[in-house]
Amino acid sequence: MPFVPSLHDSPRDAVRLGAIGIHLPDRRDSNLELATSLGVDHDFLEHKVGVLYRSVRDVGETTSDIAVRAFASLQANVDLPTERIEALIVVTQHPDFKVPHTAALVHNRLGLGGHCMTFDISQGCAGFTHGVAIVTGVMDAIGLDHAVLITSDPYSDKVLPTDRDTALLFGDAATASYFSRRGPGYRLVDANFGTVPDSHRCLLFRDRLEMDGSTVFKHAVRQALPGLKALLARNGLGVGDIDLFLLHQGSKYLVEYVAGKLGIPADKAPYEAVDYGNTVSSSIPLMLQRHVADGRLDRIALSGFGVGFTWGNNLLCRVRPET
Amino acid sequence: MTTVADIVRLMKTAGIVRGRADALIPSQPLDQQGVDSLDRMSLLAEIEDHFQVELPHEVARSLKTLDDIVDHLNIRH
User: B37 CB near a chain A CB, below 8 Å?
Assistant: First the structure.
């Protein structure tokens, strides 16, 4: 009987992350007065929390509104064949509505085609790393050529202004990442994920976000950090083989502590959220955007951790234009 | 037997409260001596690593001074 290859047996170019669009609201609320009112001294605010200003979206702007703005930024940066987008995924835990999923709303507002898969991923600070793995996996499994992953999880009105554990931390932002099989970019080489059993109470939203910071810190150090080490080790890599580590920007202290424990030089594990805050699932792609655009680094490691308590690490490698 | 000097050495190695670890008074609460909540979290993480112990949330909260930490470690071992 002759061999009949399936559609998926034909060789395809690797899925790659080719461009990222970002939306950071212009409005910035200063933390200086708020810190004073909460009894937090400015040295602690600047050097430990590391958030002097929080980005705040316009009054009335929804999760889908800022998602659309991020998509517009992506369109401005890359020749995006919107009519050919086959999957649109939104990472959020604050959808506009419980039903339908936010990706369907964004799909409609962008005027995407009827052949486009849409779904939301309910994830927090590890959402981008989960999303990269899911998008890459779906594209590989069913042979998609064009997909967009959006992160949009605004928290500015989800925290109590009098809660010193959360009020100084969070900022609003959204990002849109374009995945395809053409041109330069970064492909997902490997990833690992985890969920700490019985840990869901450390970040809990009822009528507002409640955070047990010491437990979050402990899980980040005890779970996400060994996970990142394990990911490098199983790929035969050490810290020195990675050009850049983008760690979730939970706080300046957390980023510096995790980097220090891994032995990563400060310039390879930047903290950049001083002027906008912890933007949850957008924190990593906000930083990754310019490195994807530059395309100069060979290997980038991403580490997200938070709500769940869950963590996720990605190892990305550069795809050269000729491949 | 663990001593206060062991804990202070651990703090210095980990860069916790840089330059001030030697001046800490063992019997006084750490949070009254400029050890903030984040320093405290990392100190407890360092202790768990170094002494291979688990400090559950309730235990960690009860360790307010260097003496408390040393006593707890010595009673456990």
Answer: yes
Query: Can you give the residue range of the structural domain that contains B17?
Result: 4-76
Cβ distance A17 to A178 under 8 Å? yes
Measure in Å the smallest separation between the Cα of A200 and chain B Cα atoms.
Answer: 15
The pTM of this model reads 0.90
Residues of chain B in contact with residue A218, where contact means CB-CB under 8 angstroms, are: 41, 44-45
| CA A177 – CA A199 distance, rounded (Å) | 30
Number of domains in chain B: 1
**Mean pLDDT computed over A153-176:** 92
The nearest CA of chain A is from the CA of B13 a distance in Å of 12
CATH number for the domain that contains residue B26: 1.10.1200.10
Q: Which domains does chain A have, with CATH numbers?
A: 9-180 (3.40.47.10), 185-319 (3.40.47.10)
- What pLDDT, in 10s, does the model give residues B20-39? 888 899 999 998 988 888 88
pLDDT digit string (tens) for A243-277?
Answer: 999 999 999 999 999 998 899 998 999 999 999 99
Chain A residues within 8 angstroms (CB to CB) of chain B? 44, 48, 213-215, 217-218, 221-222, 251, 253, 257, 260
Instruction: State mean pLDDT over A288-314.
Output: 96
Residues of A in contact with B17 (CB under 8 A): none
Structure tokens at A253: 């202290």
Average pLDDT value for residue range A301-313? 95
Residue of B nearest to A261 (CA): B14
* DSSP one-letter string for A83-108: GG--EEEEE-SS-S-SSS-HHHHHHH
Structure tokens at A155: 């928290």
Cα dihedral A212, B50, A224, A282, rounded to 10, equals 60
Q: Which residues of B touch A44 (CB under 8 A)?
A: 36
pLDDT band at A3 (very low <50, low <70, confident <90, very high): very low
Do residue A217 and residue B41 have CB atoms under 8 angstroms apart?
yes
Q: Do A172 and A217 form a contact (C-beta atoms < 8 A)?
A: no
pLDDT tops 70 at residue B76 = no
Interchain CB distance below 8 Å, A217 and B36: no
Tens digit of each residue's pLDDT (9 = 90 or more) over A200-218: 888 889 988 888 888 888 8
B37–A214: do the CB atoms touch at under 8 Å?
yes
